[in-house]
């Protein structure tokens, strides 16, 4: 059974810092991996989707990398802003469209 | 529509009552997913539909949980004889195609509280 952990559980940084969120998963037989953000009381918004054959994906200030063999993914956020404050979840997906979510990293960016 | 919608947004039920949660996916999306999210946790997979066919229901926690998507669009998640441990946010997501390469789009969720 796939198990996903995310480190740190919570993070508070001043505005403008670059930061890295870590995701680890136990079963490397994945098809892809998604990073989501979740704002309080709301659903999830997909940020980046990395296929298992890819090493990284970029969208604006966000960059996600994937090391499938070692069961790791990182989300890099450049020049953080208060609007980035949210919970960030990673979810590796298997071949059956089953995504397993980590518990999330709760990020606070202070102005 | 503009996105995935869910209703009701909040539901309070007495233990033992039956509840029905509705999901309206993005128009034309083939795949539909239900997740359960406990407080402070990531969502956990419940079930998956491809059009009207329920292809995976391995995440449903008990036979009190039932989901359907009879016409391949709107889906309903029904919970019979609710118990306190059913209290959670129930999230619905849809994706355009039937492959695993597609992004999932999530609704805002239904927060269920069982007293």
Question: What is the secondary structure topology, with strand pairs?
Answer:
The complex is a heterodimer of chains A (about 110) and B (about 120).
Chain A: E1 4-7, E2 10-14, E3 19-25, E4 32-38, E5 44-51, E6 56-59, E7 62-67, E8 72-77, E9 86-93, E10 105-110
Parallel strand pairs in A: 2-10
Antiparallel strand pairs in A: 1-3, 3-8, 4-5, 4-9, 6-7, 7-8, 9-10
Chain B: E1 5-7, E2 10-13, E3 19-24, E4 31-37, E5 44-50, E6 53-56, E7 65-68, E8 75-79, E9 88-95, E10 105-106, E11 110-114
Parallel strand pairs in B: 2-11
Antiparallel strand pairs in B: 1-3, 3-8, 4-5, 4-9, 5-6, 7-8, 9-10, 9-11
List unreliable stretches of 5+ residues of chain A: none
Looking at the structure, what is the overall shape of chain B?
globular
Distance between the termini of chain B: 34 Å
Radius of gyration of chain B: 13 Å
Percent helix range of chain B = under 10%
Please report the total strand number of chain A as a whole number: 10
Reading the helices and strands of chain A in chain order gives: EEEEEEEEEE
Q: How many separate helices of chain B?
A: 0
Shape of chain A: globular
Most extensive chain-chain interface: A-B, 27 and 28 residues
- Structural class call of chain A reads mainly beta
Output the helix-strand order of chain B: EEEEEEEEEEE
Which stretches of chain B of 5+ consecutive residues score pLDDT under 50?
A: none
- The quaternary state of the protein chains shown equals heterodimer
Quick check: average pLDDT of chain B? 93
Give the fraction of residues assigned to helices of chain A: under 10%
Radius of gyration of chain A, taken over Cα atoms and rounded to an integer in Å: 13 Å
Structural class of chain B: mainly beta
Calculate the mean pLDDT score of chain A and round it: 93
